[in-house]
Amino acid sequence: MARRLYRLGRWCAVHARSVLAIWLVVLVAAGAAAMSFSRPMTNEVSVPGSDFEAVLTDLQTQIPDAAGGFGTVVLHSDRGKFTPQQRKVIDEVYAQWGRQPHVKAVINPFDNERTLQRSRTDLASGKKDLATGTKELDSAGTKISQGRGQIDYGKAWIAYFEANDPDSPMLADIREQVRDGQKDLKDAKKKYAKGQRELATGRTQSEAGTTVADAAADTQFVTPDGYALTQVQFDTNTNSVDPEVKQSIVEIGQQLQDAGIDAQYSVEITRENKLVGPGEGVGLVIAAIVLVLALGSLVAAGLPIAGALLGVGVGPAGALAATHFFDMHAMTPALALMLGLAVGIDYALFIVNRHRTQILDGREITDSIAHAVGTAGSAVVVAGTTVAIALTALVVTPVPLLGQMGLVAAATVAVAVCVALTLTPALLRLAGTRVVSRRTRRKHGYVVPGVAPEGAEGPDADDVFGTGFVKAVTRRPALAVLAVIALCGILAVPALSLRPGLPDGSSEPADSTAHRAYARVEEHFGAGANGPVIAVATLDAPAKDDDAVLVEQSAIARQLGTVGGVHAVIPFGVSDDRSTLAFPVVTDAGPADAETSETVRLLGASAGPIGAATHSTIGLTGQTVANIEISEQLGRALPPYLGIVIGLSLILLTVVFRSILVPLVATAGFLLSVGASFGAAVAVYQWGWLGSLLGVDTPGPMLSFMPIMLIGVLFGLAMDYQMFLVSGMKEAHAHGADARSAVRHGFTHGSKVVLAAALIMAAVFAGFVFADLTMIRPIGFALAVGVLVDALLVRLVLTPAVMHLLGEAARWMPRWLDRILPDLDVEGTAPEQAGARGETAATATPASAS
User: Fold this and answer.
1) In what order do the strands lie in the sheet with 70-77?
2) Which of 522, 528, 560 is nearest to 212 (CA)?
3) What pLDDT is stored for residue 73 in this prediction?
4) How far is CA 835 from CA 6, 367, 370, 764, 824, in A?
5) CA 19 to CA 569: how far, in whole Å?
6) N or C terminus: which one in the chain shows less Cβ crowding within 10 Å?
């Protein structure tokens, strides 16, 4: 591989302008495709085959009016109560909102409150009528009893006269009176029976209405102190609504301000899918500063950044163009941008640093470029392949979003590798000797470019960065190993309490309208109103009429209301055939609280018994349910995913390092890094530590797919540093150094660039901690911490200590395995051997800058 890359690097250096032109054409084409074909991205997380999606699909089919997403708008009057003039403005705004595309309806809180109050009034009136009817029926029953007694009295007189005076004229009159009484009694009994049936029906309806009213608890839509809860219903889920439609809702709502009405909009309306924000720019500036300090030249520092920017221009632009053909989550290009910037700068840095070292050692520029690509480029290919494997393996998870993110990010990493191997050598050739500052050249004795003085110091004499550090680590390697394990273990402790979920309005910045809307709903309408669970009941037999529907609703609402943590159950919709009923279930706690997760689990466990008791089938859906089910499925998918990633990467690293123990050490170090990364993220985003500094205003659950995503990305990046550091040790060993000397030699030659690369990557990731897209923030933070822990502790302390302890055993491999494995030659001995045979054209002194 090294020889092929050597030839590629040489060709790109010789044809530098052509290579640059080709990449610019590719960039322009990708940008044009993105502008022409891109469509709005979504924030929807779908899990095909999941229970919550099946229930949601059934709900959309049976009760279309209940389908679609909802955005919340909380209104507040500056008068403490909405005035008639304000109501007029509100009605006009509602009408304008309702005319916007994709808006199905605007649920008027004043109409809802009026309906709610009317139903409560009607229920009270019905109870009074029921009491009056009961009294009247009791009176009628008394009269029937009296009439029956009179008839019996008349029959007794008839019997007396028939026995004693059958010819008495009174007998006929008595018989006639008895016949009339019996007829009246019969009619009274019919009326009484009818009254009993009506009263029974009235009692049933009253009890059902009371049950429904009680289940709704203290639900309100307009508060006495001037708050109103408005919901905008869309014809699809809110994540798929055109951002321009959401923006128009906010713009129309500006009319409310002029009327003294403050309007706050939920995250479903305000969330924007911005790809780049100011935080990312700050990260890039920090990366540039680190590059200048590491390379000592503005020209040299600019090359990796230029290549990385071109790479992320091509990668995410291609992803945006692909949105024309399939829906893409907003996090997908954001993750691709984050990784593309980080690895693009790092990969180019390794090649540029190798080239600078070589020309200071007297190599001719073109040959030095080719040799840098053949050696450092080999490590870049292996590192990039490892990252791509980890990302591509995300397709095994049950969430298509993760597979999509993994494939797009892997493609972006592949572009970064191609840029590093082709564009970087071209830029290096165009830069000539300017990749080394004049100060550095003078320090090495190069007064005149192109003429090397006698006794010029080579890299062995100058590149002594980290010599004292590695000597200290290898002097007491066991102590260093224990210290790293202990420190990483302490950092990982918070990870034991990790609670997965998906972000909601509470995770937005405190000064945002989405956060204020969430807080106002929680304060004035109940925490659970921010994300109710949707219960869908399918009756075994359709209800016969509306009265029967009310009875079914009351029975199901009463049963659901007995589940722990349920605050209110509100009948919401009925299918046309009266076979499907929908109930928003408002919980006591907010949608992101741990108590709500437990309530949802109790509801799921109670669905079977409740269905049996009410002759129905109960299903649960809604965002809160989706969050829990997605988290559970991802938890089950994590072990096989981890096995695939680690297995494939161990094979690759075994081939690269031709060792059994080195890949195992690398993997064990990764587990320490990922544990520390998880722990730090939980401490900040779930516990709230340093929240004011990092913009975490309301701690909550961790992003549900962050653990599996973090493992994939961090594993690949960790193997990058292992590759670049240990390959230097392997190269020194291949050139004759003993095992322990090779550890120190490889460390001093690679630690500086690994440290710089880690700082650059951490800076890029840290820039996303303040990204506009809140879902990417914990990922950026966790990756920044993970990279720093992996580089500073695991690779620069643990790895040399363990390698020193192992000595020659670190290189052990069974002979039979050594024979069958391919030789990738990442240490670059093939180009050197080719040069010895005259296949290269190296000279003793560097040439001028063309």
Assistant:
1) 103-107, 227-234, 70-77, 261-265
2) 560
3) 93
4) 11, 10, 12, 39, 18
5) 66
6) C
The H or E element that residue 842 is part of is none
Q: How many residues are listed for the chain in this entry? A: 850
Helices 467-475 and 739-766: crossing angle, nearest 10°? 110
Please tell me the distance from the alpha carbon of residue 737 to that of residue 823, in angstroms, as a whole number: 20
Q: In this predicted structure, what is the pLDDT of residue 489?
A: 94
Which DSSP helix (H) or strand (E) runs through 797? none
Where is 574: in which H helix or E strand? Answer: strand 573-574
- Counting as low any pLDDT under 50, the low residues of the chain are 275, 447-463, 836-850
Q: Let me know: does 691 contact 697? Beta carbons within 8 Å.
A: yes
- Reading the block at residue 515, the tokens are 């956060």
pLDDT at 272: 62
What is the dihedral angle through the alpha carbons of 44, 46, 50, 56, rounded to the nearest 10 degrees?
50
Cα separation, 651 vs 819, in Å, equals 15
For 315-337, letters b (16+ CB in 10 Å) and e give bbbbbbbbbeeebbbbbbbbbbb
Tokens of 603: 């509801």
Q: What pLDDT sits at residue 291?
A: 78
Both structure tokens of 719: 């193997």
Contact of 336 with 412, CB cutoff 8 Å: yes
Which H/E stretch holds residue 592?
Answer: none
Burial status of residue 277 (CB atoms within 10 A of its CB: 0-12, 13-18, 19 or more): middle
Torsion of CA 112, 117, 123, 126, to 10 degrees: -110
Q: What is the C-alpha to C-alpha distance for residues 722 and 716, in angstroms, rounded to an integer?
A: 10
CB atoms within 10 A of CB 576: 10
Residue 150 burial (CB count, 10 A): 15
482-508: per-residue pLDDT in tens? 999 999 999 999 999 888 877 777 777
HEC per residue, 601-631: HHHHHHHHHHHHHHCEEEEEECHHHHHHHHH
Q: How far apart are CA 431 and CA 299, in angstroms?
A: 7
Rounded to a whole number of angstroms, the distance between the first and last alpha carbons of the chain is 29
Position 465 scores a pLDDT of 65
Alpha-carbon span 276 to 335, nearest angstrom: 11
Contact (CB, 8 A) for 394 and 404? no
Q: What is the pLDDT of residue 395?
A: 85
For 588-694, strand residue ranges (E) read 616-621
Rounded CA separation 388/347 (Å): 14
Between the alpha carbon of residue 394 and those of residues 548, 713, 744, 779, the distances in Å are 50, 10, 37, 16
Q: Which CA distances in Å does 328 have to 46, 241, 331, 407, 528?
A: 11, 13, 8, 12, 30
- Alpha carbons 382 and 420: distance in angstroms, whole number: 13
Q: Count the helix, strand and coil residues of the chain and give each as a percent rounded to the nearest 5.
A: 70, 5, 20
- Nearest CA to 52 out of 556, 580, 629 is that of 629
Q: Of 488, 493, 500, 492, give the one whose Cα is nearest residue 686.
A: 500
3-state secondary structure of 234: strand
Which uninterrupted H or E stretch holds 506?
none
State pTM to two decimals. 0.77
What is the Cα–Cα distance from 593 to 531, expressed in whole angstroms? 11
- Under a CB-based contact definition with an 8 Å cutoff, are residues 354 and 410 in contact? no
Which tokens belong to 651?
């094979």
CA distances from 306 to 401, 423, 507, 587 (A): 30, 10, 35, 52
Q: Which residue in the block uniquely carries the two structure tokens 């006639």?
A: 176
Residue-by-residue DSSP string for 346-377: HHHHHHHHHHHHHHHTT--HHHHHHHHHHHHH
Tokens standing for residue 785 = 């911490």
Phi-psi region of 744 (alpha: psi -120 to 50; beta: other; left: phi over 0): alpha
Q: Name the CA radius of gyration of the chain, rounded.
A: 38
Provide φ and ψ at 514, rounded to 5°: -65, -40
